[in-house]
Automatic annotation (TrEMBL):
InterPro entries with a match to the protein in the record: BchE-like, Cobalamin-bd, Cobalamin-bd_sf, DUF4080, Elp3/MiaA/NifB-like_rSAM, Methyltransferase_Class_B, rSAM, rSAM_horseshoe
Ranges where the B12-binding domain occurs: 1-133
Keyword flag Metal-binding: yes
Organism: Paenibacillus kribbensis
GO cellular component annotations of the record: cytosol
CDD domains, per the entry: radical_SAM_B12_BD (cd02068)
GO molecular function: 4 iron, 4 sulfur cluster binding; catalytic activity; cobalamin binding; metal ion binding
Cofactor(s) needed by this chain: [4Fe-4S] cluster
UniProt feature, compositional bias: Low complexity: 540-557
Name by which UniProt lists this protein: B12-binding domain-containing radical SAM protein
Amino acid sequence: MKVILSTLNAKYIHTSLAIRCLKAYSEKDFDIELAEYTIKDPVMNIVSDLFQRGADVIGFSCYIWNIEETIKVIDVLKKIMPEVKIVLGGPEVSYDTEHWMKRLTNVDFIVVGEGEETFHQLLQELEGDRKFHFVYGLAYRKGEEVILMPGRPKADLNELPSPYRFAEDIPELGKRVVYFETSRGCPFSCQFCLSSIEVGVRYYDIERTKSDILYLIDNGAKLIKFVDRTFNIKRDYALEMFKFLIENHRGCVFQFEITADIMRPEVLDYLAENAPPGIFRFEIGVQSTNDPTNELVKRRQNFAKLSRTVTKVKQSGKIDQHLDLIAGLPQEDYNTFRKTFNDVFALGPEELQLGFLKMLRGTGLRIDAAKYNYTYMDVAPYEMLSNDVLSFADIVRLKRLEDVLEKYWNSHRMDHTVNYLIEREFASAFDFFQEFGDYWEGQGWQKIGHQLEDLFTRLQSFLESRGTKRMDIVLGLMKLDYFLNHKYKPRKIWWEHTLEKDDWSSYMKMVLQHPDALLSPVAADGVAETGKQHTGGTNAAQASSSTAADVDSAKSSQQSQPYREMIPAFASLKLGEKELQKHAVLDILPFSLDHILSGGGPLTAEGRTLLLVVYQQNEQQKPLYYTMPIGKEIAAI
Protein backbone atom coordinates (compact mmCIF):
# COMPACT_ATOMS: atom_id res chain seq x y z
CA MET A 1 0.00 0.00 0.00
CA LYS A 2 1.47 3.33 -1.06
CA VAL A 3 0.80 6.38 1.10
CA ILE A 4 1.39 10.04 0.27
CA LEU A 5 1.42 12.61 3.06
CA SER A 6 0.86 16.13 1.79
CA THR A 7 0.36 19.67 2.94
CA LEU A 8 -0.08 23.06 1.30
CA ASN A 9 2.40 25.36 2.99
CA ALA A 10 2.26 29.14 3.11
CA LYS A 11 5.57 29.41 1.22
CA TYR A 12 8.06 27.13 -0.48
CA ILE A 13 10.66 27.89 2.18
CA HIS A 14 8.57 26.32 4.94
CA THR A 15 8.72 22.65 5.86
CA SER A 16 5.84 20.76 7.42
CA LEU A 17 6.66 19.12 10.74
CA ALA A 18 3.33 17.32 11.11
CA ILE A 19 3.59 15.08 8.04
CA ARG A 20 7.23 14.32 8.85
CA CYS A 21 6.19 13.08 12.29
CA LEU A 22 3.64 10.74 10.68
CA LYS A 23 6.16 9.45 8.15
CA ALA A 24 8.81 8.85 10.81
CA TYR A 25 6.38 6.80 12.88
CA SER A 26 4.97 4.63 10.07
CA GLU A 27 7.65 4.37 7.38
CA LYS A 28 9.06 1.14 8.87
CA ASP A 29 5.80 -0.62 7.96
CA PHE A 30 4.49 1.30 4.96
CA ASP A 31 5.71 2.92 1.73
CA ILE A 32 5.31 6.62 2.53
CA GLU A 33 6.21 9.68 0.44
CA LEU A 34 6.03 13.36 1.37
CA ALA A 35 4.54 15.85 -1.09
CA GLU A 36 4.66 19.54 -0.20
CA TYR A 37 3.07 22.38 -2.16
CA THR A 38 1.99 25.93 -1.45
CA ILE A 39 -1.42 27.56 -1.27
CA LYS A 40 -0.41 29.59 -4.34
CA ASP A 41 0.14 26.52 -6.53
CA PRO A 42 -2.63 25.93 -9.11
CA VAL A 43 -5.00 23.15 -8.07
CA MET A 44 -4.44 21.24 -11.32
CA ASN A 45 -0.67 21.30 -10.82
CA ILE A 46 -1.05 19.72 -7.39
CA VAL A 47 -3.60 17.18 -8.56
CA SER A 48 -1.50 16.21 -11.57
CA ASP A 49 1.56 15.65 -9.43
CA LEU A 50 -0.33 13.53 -6.89
CA PHE A 51 -1.98 11.54 -9.68
CA GLN A 52 1.35 10.73 -11.31
CA ARG A 53 2.86 9.61 -8.01
CA GLY A 54 0.11 7.06 -7.60
CA ALA A 55 -1.17 6.22 -4.12
CA ASP A 56 -3.69 4.15 -2.23
CA VAL A 57 -3.94 6.66 0.61
CA ILE A 58 -3.37 10.42 0.53
CA GLY A 59 -3.27 12.36 3.78
CA PHE A 60 -3.48 16.14 4.13
CA SER A 61 -2.39 18.26 7.08
CA CYS A 62 -5.00 21.00 7.58
CA TYR A 63 -4.77 24.47 9.10
CA ILE A 64 -6.85 27.63 8.84
CA TRP A 65 -4.52 29.02 6.16
CA ASN A 66 -4.76 25.99 3.84
CA ILE A 67 -8.07 24.22 4.49
CA GLU A 68 -10.10 25.84 1.70
CA GLU A 69 -7.32 25.31 -0.87
CA THR A 70 -6.91 21.72 0.34
CA ILE A 71 -10.64 21.06 -0.14
CA LYS A 72 -10.39 22.14 -3.78
CA VAL A 73 -7.57 19.67 -4.35
CA ILE A 74 -9.47 16.84 -2.65
CA ASP A 75 -12.62 17.40 -4.70
CA VAL A 76 -10.71 17.15 -7.97
CA LEU A 77 -8.64 14.20 -6.77
CA LYS A 78 -11.74 12.15 -5.98
CA LYS A 79 -13.10 12.73 -9.47
CA ILE A 80 -10.03 11.24 -11.13
CA MET A 81 -9.04 8.79 -8.35
CA PRO A 82 -12.33 7.71 -6.75
CA GLU A 83 -10.68 4.64 -5.22
CA VAL A 84 -8.04 6.58 -3.26
CA LYS A 85 -8.61 6.98 0.47
CA ILE A 86 -8.45 10.60 1.67
CA VAL A 87 -7.35 11.21 5.27
CA LEU A 88 -7.31 14.63 6.95
CA GLY A 89 -5.54 15.66 10.12
CA GLY A 90 -4.33 18.78 11.85
CA PRO A 91 -5.74 21.45 14.15
CA GLU A 92 -8.37 22.76 11.73
CA VAL A 93 -10.22 19.43 11.49
CA SER A 94 -9.54 18.15 15.03
CA TYR A 95 -12.43 20.25 16.35
CA ASP A 96 -16.01 20.20 15.06
CA THR A 97 -14.92 16.97 13.38
CA GLU A 98 -18.47 15.83 12.66
CA HIS A 99 -19.09 19.10 10.83
CA TRP A 100 -16.10 18.42 8.56
CA MET A 101 -17.10 14.82 7.87
CA LYS A 102 -20.59 15.93 6.86
CA ARG A 103 -19.40 18.88 4.80
CA LEU A 104 -16.57 17.04 3.02
CA THR A 105 -18.15 13.92 1.57
CA ASN A 106 -14.98 13.16 -0.39
CA VAL A 107 -13.02 12.70 2.84
CA ASP A 108 -12.91 9.13 4.15
CA PHE A 109 -11.19 9.60 7.52
CA ILE A 110 -10.14 12.34 9.92
CA VAL A 111 -7.36 11.79 12.44
CA VAL A 112 -8.16 13.84 15.53
CA GLY A 113 -5.38 15.34 17.65
CA GLU A 114 -1.92 13.81 17.79
CA GLY A 115 -1.65 11.67 14.73
CA GLU A 116 1.33 9.34 14.89
CA GLU A 117 -0.27 6.32 16.58
CA THR A 118 -3.77 6.88 15.20
CA PHE A 119 -2.60 7.20 11.59
CA HIS A 120 -0.37 4.14 11.90
CA GLN A 121 -3.23 2.05 13.28
CA LEU A 122 -5.54 3.32 10.54
CA LEU A 123 -3.08 2.15 7.87
CA GLN A 124 -2.88 -1.23 9.56
CA GLU A 125 -6.67 -1.58 9.48
CA LEU A 126 -6.83 -0.48 5.83
CA GLU A 127 -4.44 -3.30 4.98
CA GLY A 128 -6.11 -5.72 7.36
CA ASP A 129 -9.62 -6.32 8.69
CA ARG A 130 -10.81 -2.68 8.38
CA LYS A 131 -12.11 -2.68 11.96
CA PHE A 132 -11.97 1.08 12.27
CA HIS A 133 -13.94 0.97 15.53
CA PHE A 134 -10.70 -0.19 17.16
CA VAL A 135 -8.86 3.02 16.19
CA TYR A 136 -9.05 5.65 18.92
CA GLY A 137 -8.83 9.25 17.74
CA LEU A 138 -10.43 8.49 14.36
CA ALA A 139 -13.54 9.72 12.54
CA TYR A 140 -14.82 7.47 9.76
CA ARG A 141 -17.93 6.61 7.77
CA LYS A 142 -20.18 3.60 8.23
CA GLY A 143 -22.57 3.85 5.35
CA GLU A 144 -24.25 7.24 5.73
CA GLU A 145 -23.34 7.44 9.41
CA VAL A 146 -20.32 9.35 10.75
CA ILE A 147 -18.55 7.54 13.60
CA LEU A 148 -16.41 9.53 16.04
CA MET A 149 -14.14 7.33 18.11
CA PRO A 150 -12.99 8.40 21.61
CA GLY A 151 -9.77 10.34 21.82
CA ARG A 152 -6.41 8.66 22.21
CA PRO A 153 -4.20 9.18 25.29
CA LYS A 154 -1.24 11.48 24.71
CA ALA A 155 1.86 9.77 23.44
CA ASP A 156 5.12 9.41 25.32
CA LEU A 157 7.22 11.77 23.21
CA ASN A 158 10.40 9.83 23.79
CA GLU A 159 8.87 6.78 22.15
CA LEU A 160 8.28 8.69 18.91
CA PRO A 161 11.00 8.43 16.24
CA SER A 162 12.80 11.54 15.06
CA PRO A 163 11.14 13.35 12.10
CA TYR A 164 14.31 15.32 11.26
CA ARG A 165 16.56 12.69 9.69
CA PHE A 166 15.15 11.95 6.24
CA ALA A 167 17.92 11.69 3.66
CA GLU A 168 15.71 13.30 1.00
CA ASP A 169 15.47 16.49 3.10
CA ILE A 170 19.22 17.12 3.20
CA PRO A 171 19.60 18.92 -0.19
CA GLU A 172 16.95 21.46 0.85
CA LEU A 173 17.89 22.04 4.51
CA GLY A 174 19.88 25.17 3.80
CA LYS A 175 17.09 26.69 1.70
CA ARG A 176 14.10 26.10 3.97
CA VAL A 177 12.84 26.98 7.42
CA VAL A 178 13.12 23.87 9.59
CA TYR A 179 10.29 23.61 12.13
CA PHE A 180 11.38 21.91 15.34
CA GLU A 181 9.63 21.00 18.58
CA THR A 182 11.22 20.27 21.93
CA SER A 183 7.86 19.99 23.69
CA ARG A 184 4.12 19.76 23.13
CA GLY A 185 1.41 21.58 25.01
CA CYS A 186 1.05 24.95 26.71
CA PRO A 187 0.75 25.86 30.38
CA PHE A 188 -1.60 28.77 29.73
CA SER A 189 -5.34 29.04 29.03
CA CYS A 190 -5.73 31.91 26.56
CA GLN A 191 -9.26 31.53 25.23
CA PHE A 192 -8.42 32.59 21.67
CA CYS A 193 -5.71 29.94 21.22
CA LEU A 194 -5.98 26.23 20.43
CA SER A 195 -2.91 25.49 22.53
CA SER A 196 -4.92 26.25 25.67
CA ILE A 197 -7.06 23.14 25.12
CA GLU A 198 -4.23 20.70 25.87
CA VAL A 199 -3.42 20.70 29.57
CA GLY A 200 0.22 20.44 30.58
CA VAL A 201 3.54 20.40 28.76
CA ARG A 202 5.45 17.27 27.66
CA TYR A 203 9.12 17.37 26.72
CA TYR A 204 11.35 15.31 24.49
CA ASP A 205 14.53 14.04 26.10
CA ILE A 206 16.97 16.93 25.96
CA GLU A 207 19.92 14.83 24.77
CA ARG A 208 17.85 13.48 21.90
CA THR A 209 16.84 17.05 21.06
CA LYS A 210 20.47 18.18 21.01
CA SER A 211 21.43 15.27 18.79
CA ASP A 212 18.70 16.09 16.27
CA ILE A 213 19.72 19.76 16.18
CA LEU A 214 23.36 18.85 15.59
CA TYR A 215 22.30 16.54 12.77
CA LEU A 216 20.39 19.41 11.12
CA ILE A 217 23.25 21.87 11.52
CA ASP A 218 25.79 19.32 10.26
CA ASN A 219 23.67 18.88 7.15
CA GLY A 220 23.35 22.56 6.33
CA ALA A 221 20.29 23.93 8.18
CA LYS A 222 20.41 27.74 8.27
CA LEU A 223 17.19 28.62 10.10
CA ILE A 224 15.47 26.51 12.76
CA LYS A 225 12.16 27.74 14.11
CA PHE A 226 11.10 26.19 17.39
CA VAL A 227 7.35 25.68 17.50
CA ASP A 228 7.11 25.25 21.28
CA ARG A 229 4.33 27.49 22.51
CA THR A 230 6.45 28.75 25.44
CA PHE A 231 10.09 27.84 24.98
CA ASN A 232 11.17 29.39 28.28
CA ILE A 233 8.52 27.87 30.58
CA LYS A 234 11.22 25.81 32.37
CA ARG A 235 14.16 28.02 33.28
CA ASP A 236 16.80 25.27 33.58
CA TYR A 237 15.72 23.62 30.33
CA ALA A 238 15.72 26.90 28.39
CA LEU A 239 19.08 27.95 29.81
CA GLU A 240 20.70 24.61 28.95
CA MET A 241 19.30 24.78 25.41
CA PHE A 242 20.45 28.37 24.90
CA LYS A 243 23.96 27.40 26.06
CA PHE A 244 24.01 24.41 23.72
CA LEU A 245 22.88 26.46 20.73
CA ILE A 246 25.41 29.20 21.42
CA GLU A 247 28.21 26.64 21.58
CA ASN A 248 27.12 24.79 18.43
CA HIS A 249 25.29 27.25 16.15
CA ARG A 250 27.91 27.49 13.36
CA GLY A 251 25.97 30.33 11.78
CA CYS A 252 22.52 28.74 12.07
CA VAL A 253 19.75 31.10 13.25
CA PHE A 254 17.16 30.02 15.83
CA GLN A 255 13.72 31.50 16.37
CA PHE A 256 11.67 30.96 19.52
CA GLU A 257 8.25 31.84 20.90
CA ILE A 258 8.82 33.06 24.44
CA THR A 259 6.65 34.41 27.22
CA ALA A 260 8.53 37.56 28.14
CA ASP A 261 7.08 38.30 31.57
CA ILE A 262 8.33 34.98 32.98
CA MET A 263 11.83 35.17 31.52
CA ARG A 264 14.24 34.83 34.44
CA PRO A 265 16.89 37.54 34.99
CA GLU A 266 19.72 35.01 35.04
CA VAL A 267 18.69 33.73 31.61
CA LEU A 268 18.59 37.27 30.25
CA ASP A 269 21.98 38.02 31.78
CA TYR A 270 23.45 34.91 30.21
CA LEU A 271 22.09 35.80 26.77
CA ALA A 272 23.28 39.39 27.04
CA GLU A 273 26.79 38.26 27.88
CA ASN A 274 27.16 35.21 25.66
CA ALA A 275 24.77 35.19 22.69
CA PRO A 276 26.47 36.02 19.38
CA PRO A 277 24.59 38.83 17.60
CA GLY A 278 22.01 37.64 15.12
CA ILE A 279 21.67 33.93 15.89
CA PHE A 280 18.56 34.22 18.11
CA ARG A 281 15.17 35.75 17.32
CA PHE A 282 12.37 36.04 19.87
CA GLU A 283 8.68 36.10 19.01
CA ILE A 284 6.62 37.51 21.87
CA GLY A 285 2.84 37.51 21.89
CA VAL A 286 1.72 40.61 23.75
CA GLN A 287 -1.75 40.70 22.11
CA SER A 288 -3.17 43.39 24.41
CA THR A 289 -2.08 45.64 27.27
CA ASN A 290 -5.70 46.22 28.34
CA ASP A 291 -6.11 44.47 31.72
CA PRO A 292 -9.90 43.87 31.50
CA THR A 293 -9.35 42.24 28.10
CA ASN A 294 -6.60 39.95 29.35
CA GLU A 295 -8.73 38.91 32.31
CA LEU A 296 -11.68 38.01 30.07
CA VAL A 297 -9.56 35.80 27.81
CA LYS A 298 -7.74 34.23 30.80
CA ARG A 299 -4.40 35.59 29.71
CA ARG A 300 -2.06 36.10 32.63
CA GLN A 301 0.35 38.84 31.68
CA ASN A 302 2.43 41.34 33.62
CA PHE A 303 3.18 44.08 31.13
CA ALA A 304 5.71 45.81 33.38
CA LYS A 305 7.77 42.60 33.60
CA LEU A 306 7.30 41.95 29.89
CA SER A 307 8.58 45.45 29.15
CA ARG A 308 11.66 44.93 31.29
CA THR A 309 12.47 41.71 29.43
CA VAL A 310 11.99 43.26 25.99
CA THR A 311 14.04 46.28 27.02
CA LYS A 312 16.89 44.23 28.45
CA VAL A 313 17.04 42.05 25.34
CA LYS A 314 17.07 45.17 23.20
CA GLN A 315 19.82 46.76 25.28
CA SER A 316 22.02 43.75 24.62
CA GLY A 317 21.86 44.40 20.88
CA LYS A 318 22.10 40.64 20.31
CA ILE A 319 18.55 39.43 19.58
CA ASP A 320 15.85 40.68 17.20
CA GLN A 321 12.36 40.72 18.68
CA HIS A 322 9.04 40.22 16.91
CA LEU A 323 6.06 41.37 19.01
CA ASP A 324 2.48 40.39 18.19
CA LEU A 325 -0.80 42.24 18.77
CA ILE A 326 -4.36 41.02 18.23
CA ALA A 327 -7.10 43.49 17.36
CA GLY A 328 -10.65 42.43 18.19
CA LEU A 329 -10.31 40.83 21.61
CA PRO A 330 -13.21 41.35 24.07
CA GLN A 331 -13.45 44.79 25.69
CA GLU A 332 -10.71 46.18 23.43
CA ASP A 333 -12.30 49.08 21.57
CA TYR A 334 -10.60 51.37 19.06
CA ASN A 335 -9.27 53.76 21.71
CA THR A 336 -7.93 51.11 24.07
CA PHE A 337 -6.31 49.35 21.12
CA ARG A 338 -4.64 52.64 20.23
CA LYS A 339 -3.09 52.60 23.70
CA THR A 340 -2.12 48.93 23.33
CA PHE A 341 -0.41 49.69 20.02
CA ASN A 342 1.49 52.66 21.41
CA ASP A 343 2.47 50.78 24.58
CA VAL A 344 4.07 48.03 22.52
CA PHE A 345 5.53 50.21 19.78
CA ALA A 346 7.27 52.20 22.51
CA LEU A 347 9.34 49.11 23.29
CA GLY A 348 10.97 49.44 19.87
CA PRO A 349 10.55 45.91 18.48
CA GLU A 350 12.30 45.10 15.23
CA GLU A 351 8.92 43.85 14.02
CA LEU A 352 5.45 44.64 15.31
CA GLN A 353 2.80 42.40 13.80
CA LEU A 354 -0.81 43.50 13.95
CA GLY A 355 -3.13 40.53 13.55
CA PHE A 356 -6.90 40.30 13.74
CA LEU A 357 -8.71 37.87 16.00
CA LYS A 358 -9.47 34.50 14.45
CA MET A 359 -12.44 32.67 15.98
CA LEU A 360 -10.80 29.25 15.87
CA ARG A 361 -12.84 26.11 16.17
CA GLY A 362 -12.54 24.58 19.63
CA THR A 363 -11.50 27.76 21.44
CA GLY A 364 -13.38 29.20 24.39
CA LEU A 365 -13.80 32.53 22.67
CA ARG A 366 -15.61 30.98 19.72
CA ILE A 367 -17.88 29.08 22.11
CA ASP A 368 -18.68 32.36 23.91
CA ALA A 369 -18.95 34.43 20.71
CA ALA A 370 -22.57 35.43 21.37
CA LYS A 371 -21.65 36.83 24.78
CA TYR A 372 -19.58 39.56 23.10
CA ASN A 373 -21.80 39.89 20.01
CA TYR A 374 -19.10 38.67 17.63
CA THR A 375 -19.65 38.44 13.91
CA TYR A 376 -16.98 36.59 11.96
CA MET A 377 -16.26 34.85 8.68
CA ASP A 378 -18.04 31.52 8.25
CA VAL A 379 -15.03 29.88 6.57
CA ALA A 380 -11.36 29.83 7.49
CA PRO A 381 -9.60 31.86 8.69
CA TYR A 382 -12.76 32.83 10.69
CA GLU A 383 -11.57 36.40 11.11
CA MET A 384 -13.73 38.57 13.34
CA LEU A 385 -15.74 41.31 11.61
CA SER A 386 -17.11 43.14 14.63
CA ASN A 387 -18.09 42.78 18.27
CA ASP A 388 -19.96 44.83 20.85
CA VAL A 389 -17.16 47.41 21.26
CA LEU A 390 -15.34 47.32 17.89
CA SER A 391 -17.32 48.01 14.72
CA PHE A 392 -16.54 46.80 11.22
CA ALA A 393 -15.70 50.43 10.36
CA ASP A 394 -13.03 50.32 13.08
CA ILE A 395 -11.67 47.07 11.65
CA VAL A 396 -11.44 48.63 8.19
CA ARG A 397 -9.41 51.54 9.57
CA LEU A 398 -7.08 49.23 11.48
CA LYS A 399 -6.53 47.22 8.29
CA ARG A 400 -5.27 50.41 6.66
CA LEU A 401 -2.91 50.99 9.59
CA GLU A 402 -1.64 47.41 9.34
CA ASP A 403 -0.86 47.83 5.64
CA VAL A 404 1.28 50.93 6.20
CA LEU A 405 2.91 49.41 9.28
CA GLU A 406 4.15 46.49 7.16
CA LYS A 407 5.38 48.71 4.35
CA TYR A 408 7.08 51.39 6.41
CA TRP A 409 8.08 49.86 9.76
CA ASN A 410 8.48 46.10 9.55
CA SER A 411 10.31 46.39 6.23
CA HIS A 412 12.74 48.94 7.78
CA ARG A 413 12.97 50.92 4.58
CA MET A 414 12.71 54.30 6.33
CA ASP A 415 13.76 53.94 9.95
CA HIS A 416 15.35 57.39 10.22
CA THR A 417 12.38 59.11 8.62
CA VAL A 418 9.64 57.25 10.46
CA ASN A 419 11.32 57.67 13.83
CA TYR A 420 11.67 61.41 13.29
CA LEU A 421 8.05 61.80 12.17
CA ILE A 422 6.66 59.88 15.13
CA GLU A 423 8.91 61.71 17.56
CA ARG A 424 8.38 65.21 16.20
CA GLU A 425 5.31 65.47 13.97
CA PHE A 426 2.60 63.09 15.21
CA ALA A 427 0.87 62.59 18.54
CA SER A 428 1.89 58.93 18.58
CA ALA A 429 3.04 56.04 16.43
CA PHE A 430 -0.54 54.86 16.09
CA ASP A 431 -1.64 58.25 14.78
CA PHE A 432 1.11 58.32 12.14
CA PHE A 433 0.33 54.88 10.75
CA GLN A 434 -3.44 55.42 10.95
CA GLU A 435 -3.45 58.83 9.27
CA PHE A 436 -1.09 57.64 6.55
CA GLY A 437 -3.15 54.46 6.06
CA ASP A 438 -6.34 56.51 5.65
CA TYR A 439 -4.60 58.79 3.14
CA TRP A 440 -3.16 55.78 1.27
CA GLU A 441 -6.58 54.27 0.72
CA GLY A 442 -8.08 57.65 -0.09
CA GLN A 443 -5.62 57.93 -2.98
CA GLY A 444 -6.57 54.47 -4.25
CA TRP A 445 -3.01 53.18 -3.86
CA GLN A 446 -4.22 49.92 -2.30
CA LYS A 447 -5.46 48.95 -5.79
CA ILE A 448 -2.11 49.30 -7.53
CA GLY A 449 1.39 48.00 -6.98
CA HIS A 450 4.44 49.99 -5.99
CA GLN A 451 8.18 50.11 -6.40
CA LEU A 452 10.66 51.34 -3.81
CA GLU A 453 10.58 54.87 -5.20
CA ASP A 454 6.78 54.96 -4.87
CA LEU A 455 6.99 54.41 -1.13
CA PHE A 456 9.05 57.58 -0.81
CA THR A 457 6.99 59.75 -3.16
CA ARG A 458 3.73 58.62 -1.55
CA LEU A 459 4.98 59.42 1.92
CA GLN A 460 6.11 62.84 0.67
CA SER A 461 2.67 63.43 -0.85
CA PHE A 462 0.95 62.53 2.40
CA LEU A 463 3.19 64.74 4.53
CA GLU A 464 2.84 67.73 2.22
CA SER A 465 -0.94 67.32 2.10
CA ARG A 466 -1.17 67.79 5.87
CA GLY A 467 1.25 70.72 6.00
CA THR A 468 4.02 68.90 7.84
CA LYS A 469 6.64 71.24 9.30
CA ARG A 470 10.31 71.19 8.38
CA MET A 471 9.88 69.15 5.22
CA ASP A 472 13.51 69.99 4.45
CA ILE A 473 14.57 67.79 7.37
CA VAL A 474 12.08 65.08 6.48
CA LEU A 475 13.22 64.98 2.86
CA GLY A 476 16.87 64.85 3.95
CA LEU A 477 16.16 61.84 6.14
CA MET A 478 14.21 60.24 3.29
CA LYS A 479 17.22 60.69 1.01
CA LEU A 480 19.46 58.99 3.58
CA ASP A 481 17.01 56.09 3.92
CA TYR A 482 16.71 55.76 0.16
CA PHE A 483 20.47 55.57 -0.27
CA LEU A 484 20.73 52.93 2.46
CA ASN A 485 18.10 50.76 0.76
CA HIS A 486 20.50 49.87 -2.03
CA LYS A 487 23.24 47.28 -2.28
CA TYR A 488 24.80 49.08 -5.24
CA LYS A 489 24.96 52.75 -6.13
CA PRO A 490 21.38 53.64 -7.17
CA ARG A 491 20.92 54.49 -10.82
CA LYS A 492 18.03 56.86 -10.21
CA ILE A 493 16.62 59.06 -7.49
CA TRP A 494 13.04 60.09 -6.83
CA TRP A 495 13.76 63.76 -6.08
CA GLU A 496 15.01 66.58 -8.26
CA HIS A 497 18.78 66.70 -7.99
CA THR A 498 19.69 70.31 -7.19
CA LEU A 499 23.47 70.00 -6.79
CA GLU A 500 25.25 71.50 -9.78
CA LYS A 501 27.89 69.36 -11.49
CA ASP A 502 30.69 71.82 -10.64
CA ASP A 503 29.65 71.92 -6.99
CA TRP A 504 29.45 68.12 -6.92
CA SER A 505 33.00 67.93 -8.28
CA SER A 506 34.25 70.47 -5.74
CA TYR A 507 32.78 68.58 -2.82
CA MET A 508 34.16 65.30 -4.12
CA LYS A 509 37.64 66.82 -4.37
CA MET A 510 37.27 68.08 -0.80
CA VAL A 511 36.42 64.56 0.33
CA LEU A 512 39.46 63.13 -1.46
CA GLN A 513 41.82 65.82 -0.17
CA HIS A 514 40.59 65.76 3.43
CA PRO A 515 39.23 62.25 4.13
CA ASP A 516 39.82 62.64 7.87
CA ALA A 517 37.28 65.48 7.96
CA LEU A 518 34.48 63.00 7.38
CA LEU A 519 32.82 61.83 10.56
CA SER A 520 33.18 58.19 11.52
CA PRO A 521 31.01 56.00 9.33
CA VAL A 522 27.99 54.00 10.32
CA ALA A 523 26.99 50.77 8.56
CA ALA A 524 23.46 50.70 7.26
CA ASP A 525 22.56 47.82 9.55
CA GLY A 526 23.96 49.69 12.52
CA VAL A 527 21.90 52.73 11.64
CA ALA A 528 18.81 50.60 11.41
CA GLU A 529 19.50 49.26 14.89
CA THR A 530 19.78 52.72 16.39
CA GLY A 531 16.66 53.69 14.48
CA LYS A 532 14.72 50.72 15.77
CA GLN A 533 15.19 51.76 19.38
CA HIS A 534 12.64 54.56 18.97
CA THR A 535 10.45 55.00 22.04
CA GLY A 536 7.75 57.15 20.54
CA GLY A 537 8.71 60.23 22.56
CA THR A 538 7.02 61.65 25.60
CA ASN A 539 3.57 61.79 24.04
CA ALA A 540 3.51 58.58 22.00
CA ALA A 541 3.82 55.68 24.38
CA GLN A 542 1.06 56.30 26.91
CA ALA A 543 2.75 53.56 28.93
CA SER A 544 3.04 53.19 32.69
CA SER A 545 5.73 55.23 34.41
CA SER A 546 7.84 52.16 35.19
CA THR A 547 7.64 51.01 31.58
CA ALA A 548 8.53 54.45 30.26
CA ALA A 549 11.56 54.54 32.54
CA ASP A 550 12.73 51.19 31.25
CA VAL A 551 12.34 52.36 27.67
CA ASP A 552 14.23 55.61 28.30
CA SER A 553 17.03 53.55 29.80
CA ALA A 554 17.12 51.36 26.72
CA LYS A 555 17.25 54.38 24.43
CA SER A 556 20.14 55.91 26.33
CA SER A 557 22.07 52.66 26.40
CA GLN A 558 21.57 51.88 22.73
CA GLN A 559 22.59 55.33 21.57
CA SER A 560 25.90 54.80 23.30
CA GLN A 561 26.59 51.48 21.62
CA PRO A 562 29.84 51.59 19.61
CA TYR A 563 28.43 51.22 16.13
CA ARG A 564 30.83 53.84 14.84
CA GLU A 565 33.79 52.00 16.32
CA MET A 566 32.87 48.83 14.43
CA ILE A 567 33.29 50.44 11.01
CA PRO A 568 36.59 51.61 9.45
CA ALA A 569 37.19 55.30 9.03
CA PHE A 570 36.64 56.70 5.57
CA ALA A 571 40.35 57.45 5.12
CA SER A 572 41.18 53.78 5.66
CA LEU A 573 39.10 52.81 2.63
CA LYS A 574 41.69 54.60 0.46
CA LEU A 575 39.25 55.29 -2.33
CA GLY A 576 40.40 57.21 -5.37
CA GLU A 577 38.37 59.43 -7.65
CA LYS A 578 37.40 56.58 -9.98
CA GLU A 579 36.21 54.40 -7.11
CA LEU A 580 34.12 57.24 -5.69
CA GLN A 581 32.62 57.91 -9.10
CA LYS A 582 31.63 54.27 -9.35
CA HIS A 583 30.65 53.42 -5.80
CA ALA A 584 29.56 56.62 -4.02
CA VAL A 585 26.70 59.11 -3.95
CA LEU A 586 26.93 62.60 -2.51
CA ASP A 587 24.31 65.14 -1.48
CA ILE A 588 24.07 68.29 0.61
CA LEU A 589 21.41 68.39 3.33
CA PRO A 590 20.21 71.82 4.57
CA PHE A 591 20.49 70.93 8.27
CA SER A 592 22.79 69.21 10.75
CA LEU A 593 22.15 65.52 10.15
CA ASP A 594 24.16 64.33 13.14
CA HIS A 595 22.22 66.71 15.39
CA ILE A 596 18.89 65.25 14.24
CA LEU A 597 20.05 61.62 14.43
CA SER A 598 21.34 62.12 17.96
CA GLY A 599 17.87 63.24 19.06
CA GLY A 600 18.23 66.98 18.71
CA GLY A 601 15.25 69.13 17.78
CA PRO A 602 14.66 70.78 14.40
CA LEU A 603 14.91 74.29 15.86
CA THR A 604 18.56 73.76 16.74
CA ALA A 605 19.61 71.84 13.63
CA GLU A 606 21.19 74.83 11.90
CA GLY A 607 23.89 74.30 9.34
CA ARG A 608 24.36 72.03 6.38
CA THR A 609 25.67 68.49 6.02
CA LEU A 610 27.64 66.82 3.28
CA LEU A 611 26.29 63.27 3.04
CA LEU A 612 28.46 60.63 1.37
CA VAL A 613 27.24 57.05 0.95
CA VAL A 614 29.66 54.38 -0.24
CA TYR A 615 28.74 50.98 -1.64
CA GLN A 616 30.49 47.60 -2.02
CA GLN A 617 33.23 48.35 0.52
CA ASN A 618 32.71 45.60 3.09
CA GLU A 619 32.18 41.85 3.16
CA GLN A 620 28.52 42.25 4.10
CA GLN A 621 28.04 44.54 1.11
CA LYS A 622 26.21 47.01 3.33
CA PRO A 623 26.29 50.68 2.35
CA LEU A 624 28.32 52.96 4.61
CA TYR A 625 27.52 56.59 5.12
CA TYR A 626 29.74 59.48 6.18
CA THR A 627 28.95 63.07 7.07
CA MET A 628 30.83 66.35 7.07
CA PRO A 629 29.44 69.61 8.46
CA ILE A 630 29.44 72.42 5.91
CA GLY A 631 30.09 75.86 7.35
CA LYS A 632 32.18 77.34 10.11
CA GLU A 633 33.27 73.93 11.34
CA ILE A 634 35.39 73.31 8.23
CA ALA A 635 36.46 76.88 7.51
CA ALA A 636 40.06 75.76 7.90
CA ILE A 637 39.65 73.33 5.03
